From TrEMBL:
This is Antibiotic biosynthesis monooxygenase. Residues 2-96 form the ABM domain. The keyword Iron-sulfur does not apply. Its EC number is 1.14.-.-. It comes from the Bacteria. PROSITE patterns: ABM. The keyword Protein biosynthesis does not apply. One of its GO terms (molecular function) is monooxygenase activity.
Length: 106
């Protein structure tokens, strides 16, 4: 499995707008082979920003890389620059190969 994450430093006064952009967008992730899940996380607040992370879990790194070359990816990121005034700079991408995954199975 592979985790793809983007970290955003959101200006506190723009946090509600940032969240609204994410919560109302049309996601096409479910259309891609290997997509497992998506999460938008709100983290700690510093003096100048609130930390947010968007993360996707993929069956493999190859599935994630296929997403980045897809039409769905191009559509999902077509307006990405419009939210830059909500953040302190561009997102920071982090990719992780999953070494261990423990699930709570009933």
């Amino acid at each position: 499995m592979f985790v793809a994450a983007n970290r955003f430093r959101v200006i506190p006064e723009h946090a509600a707008d940032f969240e609204q952009v994410w919560l109302t967008r049309e996601s096409r992730l479910h259309e891609l082979p290997g997509f497992v899940s998506f999460q938008l996380l709100r983290g700690p607040q510093a003096a100048d920003h609130i930390l947010y992370t968007s993360s996707t879990l993929w069956a493999s790194r190859a599935d994630f890389e296929a997403w980045t070359k897809s039409e769905q990816f191009r559509r999902a990121h077509s307006g990405a620059g419009s939210s830059r005034n909500l953040t302190l700079g561009p997102p920071n991408f982090e990719g992780f190969d999953v070494l261990q995954h423990i699930k709570n199975e009933p």
